[in-house]
Amino acid sequence: MDKLCFFTFILLIMSNCSESPASESAAYREAHRPQFHFSPDSMWMNDPNGMVFYDGEYHLFYQHYPDSTVWGPMHWGHAVSTDLVHWEHLPIALYPDSLGYIFSGSAVVDWKNTSGLGREGQPPLIAIFTHHDPEGEKAGKTDFQYQSIAYSLDKGRTWTKYEGNPVLPNPGIKDFRDPKVFWHRESGRWVMIFAAGDHVQLYHSPDLINWAYASEFGKGTGGQGGVWECPDLFPLPLEGSADTMWVLLLSINPGGPNGGSATQYFLGDFDGTAFRMDPAFAEKVAADTASGNPFWVDYGRDNYAGVTWSDIPETDGRRIFMGWMSNWDYANVVPTQRWRSAMTVPRKLLLKNTPAGPRLFSRPVEELEQLHTETVDIPAREVVQTMDLSELLQSPSALLDLSLSLSWEPGQQPDEIALVMENNRGEQLRFGLNGEEYFTDRTAAGKKDFEPGFASRQTAQRWSTFNGLQIRALLDVASVEFFADEGGVAMTDIFFPSEDFTRLKLELSGGKVQVEGGRLFALQSIWQ
Ligand code: FRU
């Protein structure tokens, strides 16, 4: 072996050693590894679980199978962050036990120690989750899912399962899972909302242990193309008014607007017992349901099972959401090696009045701005066919944060306004506005043979009538999160190019636009 070969050999050995979690940063440069989105160190991940803020830390638990890169017996993986951007992997929090696998659920701080599980002066963290008994399922029973709790007295580092589990046995409903719990101040009790097949059920409790039936919502309402999963329920102020509305998030699989898994929402009121849709919103849902199109948190194919953080301090006041950036249509076969899937970036949810009525808006949290490295102002100018945006940057980057404002003369809207990410292999990812439809298009964005329907084009109806377009887009190695009309429409999609996309351009078909301005940022990895 000559000298050069020997050094190459040593380098190769070193890079293989870097597969161990001890030297995370080297391993985290694997093909398709997201650089500013949370992904597990290794093996399988699906839904975010138990998101709770406590003592300066945002906890993120997640559905995890530590023995394989495909779904299997579920555990709760665990990570914490102090800034919603950088994550520290922690040991697995909850393991399957004699009652079954640990399915999705939530976590709260039991500030008043209503459960009695705290220690003097120290409130317990309580995780509320579904136990799924695979034996019962195999035997064809209907009562194999039930709700259980576990508690932690050391900032979520270790957990003890409550000895009286399950706290909510199954009354004979096959799909009976994904509890989200919150404290309802007005009625002074805990509320649990969970999915029960084609609807949600609500229970309440004084102590997180004894639960009583309160109400149900949703039979025959909204998207019904699949099973309901992972609900969330919370109040949000309606911007520009003194009103507050309650938002019910509800994931459904299949039956999403562009196929497979997706998350819809309902707006209404909650009195501590029952959720009722706002009458005007209910009318629209009823009309839209007929055409199979209720209201969606995200119209892309890769934002599922998303819920919001509990116990965000009132001084912060945000409602922060995170979803699983995949889709059950292909989650188990996407072409990554050591791990499978990532989460969306954390997003702030807002309720805003629009000409079409109140709508849910989402925007990436501001904390992400700390990742900006190079910043360029996009100059105002008229664009007829195309404008190269990435050439404005000094060094090409696959990690981009784009804000762009365009306008056009009435009647002059181009047939298509596309943002195009490209690499040197002729692969490209497109997203933008075509007529009155937003779209993301990954039909030519790289690897696609792993699943016949993966190479798809997604659409979302535009409701804004503004003669212009405001775009925000976050591009990571393997995903785009596209927000239009200030976050009124969101589309999240993953892709697997055979080489990073580092060129970004604006491309018009017909017509011309005025670029009013914008900014392009290159981002740094969170895994350094
Ligand atoms: C949603 C879901 C949940 C369930 C979990 C199992 O993606 O199907 O309903 O609790 O995943 O991993």
Task: Write up this protein.
With 528 residues, this protein is mainly beta. The protein folds into 2 domains: 39-364, Tachylectin-2, Chain A (5 Propeller), CATH 2.115.10.20; 369-523, Sandwich (Jelly Rolls). It is 7% helix and 44% strand. The chain is built from 4 helices and 34 strands. Strands 22, 23, 25, 30, 31, 32 and 34 form a 7-stranded antiparallel beta sheet that branches. Strands 24-33-26-27-28-29 form a 6-stranded antiparallel beta sheet, with no helix packed on it. The relative contact order is 0.12. Mean pLDDT is 94; it is low at 1-23. It binds beta-D-fructofuranose. Beta-D-fructofuranose (FRU) is lined by residues 46-47, 63, 74, 103-104, 130, 177-178, 229-230, 305. Beta-D-fructofuranose (FRU) binds next to β1, β5, β9 and β13.
Task: Explain briefly what this protein structure is.
The chain is mostly beta strands. It is built from 4 helices and 34 strands.
| CATH fold description of the largest domain | Tachylectin-2, Chain A
Decide which structural class fits the backbone: mainly beta
Low-pLDDT regions = 1-23
State the domain count: 2
Key words describing this protein structure:
single chain, 528 residues, mainly beta, Tachylectin-2, Chain A, Jelly Rolls, 2 domains, 7-stranded antiparallel β-sheet, 6-stranded antiparallel β-sheet, globular, binds beta-D-fructofuranose
Present the secondary structure layout:
Blueprint: H1 3-17, H2 24-27, E1 43-54, E2 57-65, E3 75-81, E4 88-94, E5 101-109, E6 125-132, H3 134-138, E7 145-152, E8 160-161, E9 177-184, E10 189-195, E11 200-205, E12 212-217, E13 227-237, E14 244-253, E15 262-270, E16 275-277, H4 279-290, E17 304-308, E18 320-324, E19 339-340, E20 347-354, E21 357-364, E22 372-378, E23 381-383, E24 386-388, E25 400-407, E26 416-422, E27 428-434, E28 437-441, E29 457-461, E30 468-476, E31 479-484, E32 489-494, E33 503-509, E34 513-523
Parallel strand pairs: 1-19
Antiparallel strand pairs: 1-2, 2-3, 3-4, 5-6, 6-7, 7-8, 9-10, 10-11, 11-12, 13-14, 14-15, 15-16, 17-18, 18-20, 20-21, 22-34, 23-34, 24-33, 25-30, 25-34, 26-27, 26-33, 27-28, 28-29, 30-31, 31-32
The structure holds beta-D-fructofuranose.
